[in-house]
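Notebook entry, structure prediction.
Reason for the run: the old model in the group folder had no record of what sequence produced it. Starting over properly, with the input documented here first.
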Amino acid sequence: IDLTTGLGLQGYRAVLLAHPHKPVPAGVREQLEGAGARLQTFPPGRTDFGRTPLRLGAALRALRPDVLIEYSADALPFLNWGRKSVGNPRLIFANRNFCVPSGPLGSLVARALQRVDAIACVSAAVASYWTLAAPYLDQSRLWVTYNGVRVPPAEAYPTPAAARAALGLPAEARILGTVGRMVRGKGQEFLIRALPDIVAGVPEAL
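New structure, fully documented this time:
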């Protein structure tokens, strides 16, 4: 939504190609439409290498975009090849993590990565990973683009004492927290495994 809004301010109109197996919530649809985006769902094929690329290619030929932003490394080989037939738009790989396929597909992705116009890394750590793991990449194409976070003004936050009281936490409690999606790659399991040792050493921890 933020990307769509920002692109609109720069004179671009965003079209989002969505997969029907991962439906977009109605509230998000409304916000995207409010930002001027068009959401287009295309039916997939039985496999990633079957009819899906053909249907995606047809959508791109109809749209003839100026810029392509792709979040999945798996699709880069097809998009890098297919963009030649739709005016050769700029291709940006928005890389949120280190997830790159292995095997034959991994080799195709590695070749495609050398031909994208930019790799937008979500953090300096991700950019450093690419610098070390893929020295064949043109380092000038690695761009660090942090996630936009709307931060309310300081006066909108409760005091620490009020926040603890609202959650029913003792004022003297030692609070341990973590921020991240509940997926395996975020390592939440390591924190959970460490909790007994933490509580044993710091009984007042919550």
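Summary: Helices lie at 2-9, 26-34, 51-63, 76-82, 103-113, 124-133, 160-167, 188-201.
The old model has been moved to the deprecated folder.
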